[in-house]
Design brief:
The chain is α/β, with parallel strands linked by helices. It has 16 helices and 21 strands. It is globular and about 85 Å long.
């Protein structure tokens, strides 16, 4: 059986140690085993990172950018291979897997411009003969702890910016689908990066804690559930690390009475059920405003959801694939039962779905709820599966309050033709990322990604200029050059701008 090992320069770990099964979600069968690392494996990776990082930081930004350009080229050349490998372990269909790689590649494209974005600030004549300037310098060693649902995109969000800024990076991907992160590290080495600059260590909570406690790791980026994000943030900060920890979500789609209903339904189907709903930017709650909009939306959704076609990852006609594990399938189906028990109307029940020839695969059919209310736990918590809930609102203000008061504040969307309503909503809603007639408002790579409330812990967002600030520290220099005419006995007085 295939064994997936760490990528640690000059070190092979995990032999004879703990392992975890890697499943093919389409068949339910174990396809590989991944070695789970130890403190010794992390120590070996850190030691090699400490050796290589100073030289990389001293490499001028243009040369660092050339490695990023070559890596971008290799990603494009190997897109099909990466997508098929990703789909085989995660379960998302191949075209969706290509999107996973592409959104990570776009951050690599931004990182190719690192010579420009790393430029500091300069003020001439801040005082008598005094100039002030700043520079951004790398932290040293960064680490990323990434989830199963985007095994290509999220690692590249992290290490692309961190390494371009001059840091070495240690990646701890999900043990559920670890092959693509390993392949990314191999391609990065092929692109000309020095050995040890990007390393991969596999593991579970034991490895996570080792990363959070290691004194040589200066910053940690995390994406996962909110409870674990909170834990990672607290433990990392307690160990004097810089931490950004992105948590869960319960994103809402507000449907105003004047919305283009054809567009809204089409967007909702992709946003709620794409990738089997296993996305922190999925749209699992739809809020029609007014009874007429609610009834029309429900009628259209029933028809569209009933026509959805789950299938194996390699099926080009499948609209989504299986979920990642049998345990996650059971968790989703438990939440569906909870919704029923709480009194919501289960309009379409996706439980018990079976795909002919793949009866052991981890498939969940599409589910649709109506008359969900805010006090229900199935509304309050993240289901993370192909389940869409309709929560009816009587007015714009009531619809605005739902995402604003929710414990999560990752993303939200409003569908309307009314510019004033859209502007008012975007300004007032208490959520970090807003879409106006855009169902999944993930910002492009030269902006930044991050939610509010329990969707994000820490002060800086992912990638873009926020990512640059997270992976660097600012140094401020105040200088003057004596011309030889001043008295050596004169005390220096801090000049003012007055």
């Amino acid at each position: 059986m295939r064994i997936i090992d760490h990528v640690i320069a000059g070190h092979s770990g995990g032999a004879g140690g703990r392992q975890s099964d890697v499943f093919d979600p389409n068949t339910g069968q174990v396809q590989a085993k991944v070695n789970l690392g130890t403190q010794a494996d992390l120590d070996a990776a850190v030691a090699r990172a400490q050796e290589v990082q100073p030289g990389w930081a001293a490499t001028n930004p243009q040369r660092r950018a050339r490695v990023m350009f070559k890596f971008k080229q290799l990603l494009e050349e190997n897109m099909q291979e990466l997508a098929e490998l990703l789909a085989s372990e995660h379960g998302k269909v191949v075209e969706d897997a290509k999107g996973d790689v592409q959104r990570g590649l776009e951050v690599i494209e931004f990182a190719c411009g690192i010579p420009h974005v790393l430029k500091g600030e300069y003020t001439q004549g801040a005082g008598p003969g005094i100039d002030v300037y700043s520079m951004r310098q790398p932290l040293g060693i960064g680490a990323g702890i990434t989830p199963f649902n985007f095994p290509a995109m999220i690692p590249m969000w992290m290490f692309g910016m961190a390494i371009a800024c001059g840091n070495a990076f240690i990646l701890k991907p999900s043990e559920r689908d670890p092959s693509v992160p390993v392949r990314l590290a191999e391609l990065f080495l092929e692109a000309g990066a020095p050995e040890g600059l990007l390393q991969v260590v596999h593991g579970d909570k034991e490895m996570v804690d080792a990363i959070l406690d290691h004194p040589a790791i200066g910053a940690v980026s995390f994406v996962g559930s909110s409870d674990i994000a909170h834990y990672v943030y607290n433990r990392g900060v307690a160990n004097a690390k810089r931490v950004q920890a992105m948590g869960g979500a319960k994103n809402h789609g507000i449907i105003m009475p004047d919305a283009d209903m054809d567009q809204a339904v089409n967007d909702l189907i992709g946003a709620a059920y794409g990738s089997a709903g296993e996305r922190c930017m999925a749209l699992p709650v739809v809020v029609p405003v007014g009874e007429k909009a609610a009834e029309e939306l429900r009628e259209r959704l029933v028809k569209a959801v009933s026509g959805l076609r789950p299938g194996v990852s390699s099926d080009p006609d499948a609209q989504y694939g299986p979920v990642v594990t049998a345990q996650h399938k059971q968790r989703i189906e438990n939440w569906i039962q909870t919704g029923v028990d709480e009194g919501a109307e289960l309009v379409i029940d996706g439980r018990g779905f079976s795909l002919q020839g793949h009866e052991q695969g981890f498939f969940v059919g599409p589910s649709l709820f109506d008359h969900v209310t805010p006090e229900m736990s199935s509304y309050q918590e993240e289901i993370f599966g192909p389940v869409l809930q309709i929560v009816r609102a009587n007015s714009f203000e009531e619809a605005l309050a739902l995402p604003s008061k929710h414990q999560y504040g990752n993303g939200v969307a409003i569908f309307t033709r009314n510019g004033h309503a859209a502007r008012e909503f975007a300004h007032r809603v208490n959520v970090g990322m807003v879409g106006i007639n855009v169902p999944i408002p993930v910002p492009v790579s030269y902006h930044s990604f991050g939610g509010w409330k329990r969707s994000g812990f820490g002060d800086m967002d992912q990638y873009g200029m926020e990512g640059l600030r997270f992976w660097t520290k600012a140094k401020k220099i105040t200088q003057r050059w004596p011309d030889g005419g001043a008295s050596g006995d004169s005390a220096f007085i801090i000049p003012t701008m007055g």
